[in-house]
Amino acid sequence: MPPGWIHVDGSRRAWLVSHAWPLDRWLVRLGLLRATAFHPPLIHHDLRRGVPWPDASVAAIYAGELWEHLEPDDGRRLLDECHRALKPGGVLRVCVPDGVGFWQQYLALHEAERARAPGERESARLARHVGLYFADICTRPPGFKSFGHFHKWQYDEVQLVDLFTRAGFEEVGRERFHDSRIPGIAALERSDFLIVEGVKPKA
């Protein structure tokens, strides 16, 4: 984690890393858990209960691949909490998988197969894409596979911009990868997905 930033996560895996880092490494070596990007120091905190900072005390919040792991009502409440904790002029930046991009790719695959003669079509290509959604995105893998870490919603630009606006943010819009009002964002941002940023009003 770059200097000045605090890593907060409410997942069970984050709890394991923050409370029993050697055990986590041992389970990875045994093949019972996948390697994780989590490393101490890490604050384990359930963000559905709000952010752990006072009003107007934070300069910036970056949430990379977090919001899709929240139920929609929890996501709305967390946006309100971020607005509360940010200083006037503070920036919230959220990166989530792009629902439109996922299904556009599906439609492109579908049209490519439809253009072929029935006997030459490869339905397995479509099945793999749909399978990715149901096997890895919107289901709840049992046991240690997900460790409670699965997607609960799929966003697009319209939904996410609307959430920001309703929470009171200004200058809300979709942003490019590593192009941000937050200095040094490239040290944090790993995924070029759907990225939306907004500013808490100064007055």
Walk me through what this model shows.
The protein has 203 residues and is of the alpha/beta class. It has 6 helices and 6 strands. It has helices spanning 12-19, 21-29, 72-85, 99-114, 123-137, 157-166, and strands at residues 8-9, 43-44, 58-64, 86-96, 170-174, 194-199. α1 packs across α2 (21-29). It starts with 7 loop residues before the first strand and ends with a strand.
Quick tags:
single chain, 203 residues, alpha/beta, Rossmann fold, four-stranded mixed β-sheet, two-stranded parallel ribbon, globular
Describe how the helices and strands are arranged:
Elements (H helix, E strand, L loop, with lengths): L7 E2 L2 H8 L1 H9 L13 E2 L13 E7 L7 H14 E11 L2 H16 L8 H15 L19 H10 L3 E5 L19 E6 L4
Parallel strand pairs: 1-2, 3-4
Antiparallel strand pairs: 4-6, 5-6
What is the compact description of this entry?
This protein is an alpha/beta fold and 203 residues long.
Number of helices: 6
Cα Rg: 19 Å
Helicity, in percent? 25-40%
- SSE string, helices as H and strands as E: EHHEEHEHHHEE
Please tell me the CATH architecture of the largest domain by its name: 3-Layer(aba) Sandwich
CATH topology annotation of the largest domain = Rossmann fold
**Domain unit count:** 2
| Major beta sheet, strand line-up | 3-4-6-5
Which ranges are low-confidence, i.e. pLDDT below 50, for 5 or more consecutive residues? Answer: none
Mean pLDDT across all amino acids: 88
* Overall geometry: globular
N-to-C terminal Cα separation, in Å?
Answer: 31 Å
Q: Which sheet architecture does the biggest sheet show?
A: 4 strands, mixed
Question: Strand-residue fraction?
Answer: 15-25%
